[in-house]
């Protein structure tokens, strides 16, 4: 039986503030457990919260960048539920009047653009963190609570159920992450929990309009985890439905080591959080003039930068998308081109050798010893014919290890490309004399055999011969 997959994401992003949302405690990650706390974020009796103005500013910027309507009037509410990591027994969040609503982002998967609608963006405080003795809550004998994260400011970005596959879910999460990075409102370090998602997934028969029963998976904090968890959960639900069973509405956890989802708790009905207006915080009033001022102050965002790269540098849609997904990579590309390097060559080196080295060592581009200026200088040496693309590989390896200037490396190691026609001609003559069979094959009509001869010339010149000149000399002698 054929099914349609229906997915919605609730993305939680910690905001890049120095202090928490309602108190002056630090938001530093990795501090000793239960040290970044005070009576306000611990919810002790008699305390009063005060809103961090920077949180509101960041939320409004995110709302505008994600094409939302910013509400002139919004308020905080108390979301009542009990969990050990919630010391007040309620979470200060927003309910019926959030800061932003009715947005969207456009994603691209397999060359097709799709619009994913955003229901709302609201501000809230983060909960604490359970520290389990095992690998997951399911296999833990004990769990301790660290309240350092309690009160760290969050925005929750809730999508409509417009996502149809694990690949689309990943693309949507990547796009939202990219926008937040460009705005510089969140560190977006998924490994630190700065950015994580609750994922809802259900199946329905193809052509049906009514949504199926959903399962929810909480706190997925990597793109790979989101894709893998969804792929498994879709397969699990398909098997149950094909066998005539029924999906149970429940919250499940992803076991990354085993590659499976596990049931945590069933949800027979939607939980009643008994929201009530937060009496200790004033409503947030934002004028149209203030909203426009925030809009004018936004940086160039990923979609706009992608279009600029395509129009100004004649890059393909795919190349421009790869280069602009990360603000740091886009800044790196811009810096290299500003230094006079050929844009297409720069793009190829960033997406090729540089990305390969970054990925293999699990580094961010900001940690690369190869600066944008030095990459530009190396690309310029290629364009001028000073070094060949093959020699450039050797130069890049040295730059990656040492961070040295490419011109210095080329001079010290004697890697300047040979462009002296007479010197190359001597090597060509020697190669032709030493390889009668490929020469005979070429003259007999096998044009591909010249590739072997070119390779021999390059080998004897230790990669320094100008490849274009080698081809030209070989053809001239063999066709004579």
Automatic annotation (TrEMBL):
Classification via PROSITE patterns: GATB
Enzyme Commission no: 6.3.5.-
GO molecular function: asparaginyl-tRNA synthase (glutamine-hydrolyzing) activity; ATP binding; glutaminyl-tRNA synthase (glutamine-hydrolyzing) activity; transferase activity
Enzyme class per UniProt: ligase
Boundaries of every Asn/Gln amidotransferase domain copy: 331-478
Pfam family membership, one: GatB_N
Keywords, ordered alphabetically: ATP-binding, Ligase, Nucleotide-binding, Protein biosynthesis, Transferase
InterPro entries linked to this entry: Asn/Gln-tRNA_amidoTrfase_suB/E, Asn/Gln-tRNA_Trfase_suB/E_cat, Asn/Gln_amidotransferase, Asn/Gln_tRNA_amidoTrase-B-like, GatB, GatB_C_1, GatB_Yqey_C_2, Gln-tRNA_amidoTrfase_suB_CS
Record-annotated membrane-spanning stretches: none
Annotated catalysed reactions: L-aspartyl-tRNA(Asn) + L-glutamine + ATP + H2O = L-asparaginyl-tRNA(Asn) + L-glutamate + ADP + phosphate + 2 H(+); L-glutamyl-tRNA(Gln) + L-glutamine + ATP + H2O = L-glutaminyl-tRNA(Gln) + L-glutamate + ADP + phosphate + H(+)
Free-text function comment from the UniProt entry: Allows the formation of correctly charged Asn-tRNA(Asn) or Gln-tRNA(Gln) through the transamidation of misacylated Asp-tRNA(Asn) or Glu-tRNA(Gln) in organisms which lack either or both of asparaginyl-tRNA or glutaminyl-tRNA synthetases. The reaction takes place in the presence of glutamine and ATP through an activated phospho-Asp-tRNA(Asn) or phospho-Glu-tRNA(Gln).
Similarity field: Belongs to the GatB/GatE family. GatB subfamily.
UniProt cross-references to PANTHER family, sorted A to Z: GLUTAMYL-TRNA GLN AMIDOTRANSFERASE SUBUNIT B MITOCHONDRIAL AND PROKARYOTIC PET112-RELATED (PTHR11659), GLUTAMYL-TRNA(GLN) AMIDOTRANSFERASE SUBUNIT B, MITOCHONDRIAL (PTHR11659:SF0)
Subunit annotation: Heterotrimer of A, B and C subunits.
This protein's name: Aspartyl/glutamyl-tRNA(Asn/Gln) amidotransferase subunit B
């Amino acid at each position: 039986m054929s099914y349609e997959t229906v997915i919605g994401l609730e993305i939680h992003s910690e905001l890049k503030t120095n202090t928490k949302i309602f108190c002056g405690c630090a938001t530093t990650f990795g501090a000793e457990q239960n040290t970044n706390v005070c009576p306000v974020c611990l919810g002790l009796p008699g305390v009063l919260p005060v809103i961090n103005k920077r949180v509101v500013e960041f939320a409004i910027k995110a709302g505008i960048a994600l094409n939302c309507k910013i509400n002139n009037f919004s308020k905080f509410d108390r979301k009542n539920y009990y969990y050990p990591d919630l010391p007040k027994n309620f979470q200060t969040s927003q309910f019926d009047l959030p800061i932003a609503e009715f947005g969207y982002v456009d994603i691209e998967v397999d060359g097709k653009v799709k619009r994913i609608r955003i229901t709302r963006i609201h501000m809230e405080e983060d909960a604490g963190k359970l520290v389990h003795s095992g690998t997951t809550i399911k296999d833990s004998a004990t769990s301790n609570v660290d309240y350092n994260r309690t009160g760290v400011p969050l925005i929750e970005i809730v999508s409509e159920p417009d996502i149809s596959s694990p690949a689309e879910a990943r693309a949507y999460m990547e796009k939202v992450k990219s926008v937040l990075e460009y705005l510089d409102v969140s560190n977006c370090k998924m490994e630190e929990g700065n950015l994580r998602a609750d994922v809802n997934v259900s199946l329905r028969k193809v052509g049906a309009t009514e949504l199926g029963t959903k399962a929810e998976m909480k706190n997925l904090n990597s793109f790979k985890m989101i894709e893998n968890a969804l792929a498994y959960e879709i397969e699990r639900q398909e098997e149950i439905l094909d066998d005539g069973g029924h999906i149970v509405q429940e919250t499940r956890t992803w076991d990354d080591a085993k590659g499976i989802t596990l049931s945590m708790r069933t949800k027979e009905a939607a939980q009643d959080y008994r929201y009530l207006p937060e009496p200790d915080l004033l409503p947030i009033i934002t004028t149209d003039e203030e909203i426009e001022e925030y809009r004018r102050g936004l940086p160039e965002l990923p979609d706009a930068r992608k279009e600029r790269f395509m129009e100004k540098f004649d890059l393909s849609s795919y190349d421009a998308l790869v280069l602009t997904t990360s603000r740091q990579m886009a800044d790196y590309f811009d810096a290299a081109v500003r230094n006079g390097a050929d844009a297409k060559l720069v793009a190829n080196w960033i997406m090729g050798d540089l990305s390969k080295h970054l990925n293999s060592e699990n580094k961010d581009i900001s940690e690369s010893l190869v600066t944008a200026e030095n990459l530009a200088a190396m690309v310029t040496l290629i364009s001028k014919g000073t070094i060949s693309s093959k020699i450039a590989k050797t130069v890049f390896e040295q730059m990656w290890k040492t961070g040295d200037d490419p011109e210095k490396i080329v001079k010290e190691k004697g890697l300047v490309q040979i462009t002296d026609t007479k010197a190359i001609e001597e090597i060509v003559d020697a190669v032709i004399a030493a390889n009668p069979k490929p020469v005979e094959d070429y003259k007999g009509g096998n044009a591909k055999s010249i590739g072997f001869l070119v390779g021999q010339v390059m080998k004897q010149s230790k990669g320094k011969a100008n490849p274009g000149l080698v081809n030209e000399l070989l053809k001239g002698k063999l066709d004579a």
